[in-house]
């Protein structure tokens, strides 16, 4: 039987078909009201705080095992302030980078604990690499800036690093 179309009775008379009431479709849910400017909760963003590295030569431990891969975390203000109280740093400011790197390197191959004693026994090329790496990750990933020549207007990059590790 089709809805709203008359049918015939047994006697042949036309009988109107029952009309089924249509159920109204549910009203769409109202859209959430926009939040006032400045009150919107920021999206939760995970900040990367540890960075992997591979030493050019590698740290050789007391048993002759070479350790090259490691992890360095971002430095805190405390990391840069505490070494300044170290007597070795006060007597020889060049020692600052050794103490600082000993605080921020969280893993180095299979070395059980990384500290300034480990860093001071690294090859000079690995120490230089770690100093540059420290500058890069603590300067939001790079120490280069794009600039433009004032004469020919040609763009190029310059290295902003160059100060000693731990100095602003």
Condensed summary:
The protein has 168 residues and is α+β, with helices and mostly antiparallel strands. The protein has 5 helices and 7 strands, in the order E-E-E-E-H-H-H-E-H-H-E-E. 23% of the residues lie in helices and 22% in strands.
* SSE pattern, N- to C-terminal: EEEEHHHEHHEE
How would you sum up the major sheet?
3 strands, antiparallel
Query: pLDDT average, as an integer?
Result: 80
Shape: extended
Which band does the percent of strand residues land in? 15-25%
For the CA atoms, what is the radius of gyration? 35 Å
Strand order, sheet with most strands: 3-4-5
Helix content: 10-25%
Q: List the uncertain runs.
A: 162-168
Count, helices: 5
What is the end-to-end distance? 87 Å
What does this structure look like?
The structure is a single chain. This protein has 168 residues and is α+β, with helices and mostly antiparallel strands. The chain is 23% helix and 22% strand. The chain is built from five helices and seven strands, in the order ββββαααβααββ. It has a three-stranded antiparallel sheet with strand order 3-4-5. A two-stranded antiparallel sheet has the order 1-2. A hairpin with a 6-residue loop joins strand 6 and strand 7 (155-159). Residues 162-168 have low confidence and may be disordered.
């Amino acid at each position: 039987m089709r809805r709203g179309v008359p049918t015939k009775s047994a006697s042949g008379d036309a009988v109107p078909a029952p009309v089924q009431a249509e159920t109204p479709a549910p009203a769409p849910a109202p859209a959430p009201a926009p939040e006032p400017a400045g009150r919107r909760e920021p999206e939760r963003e995970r900040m990367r705080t540890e960075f992997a590295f591979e030493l050019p030569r590698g740290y050789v431990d007391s048993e002759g095992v070479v350790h090259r891969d490691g992890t360095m975390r971002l430095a805190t203000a405390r990391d840069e302030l505490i070494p300044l109280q170290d007597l070795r740093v006060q007597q020889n400011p060049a020692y600052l980078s050794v103490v600082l790197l000993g605080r921020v390197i969280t893993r180095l191959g299979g070395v059980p604990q990384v500290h300034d004693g480990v860093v001071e026994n690294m090859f000079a090329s690995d120490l230089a690499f770690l100093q540059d790496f420290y500058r890069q990750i603590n300067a939001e990933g790079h120490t280069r800036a794009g600039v433009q020549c004032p004469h020919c207007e040609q763009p190029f990059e310059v290295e902003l690093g160059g100060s000693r590790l731990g100095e602003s």
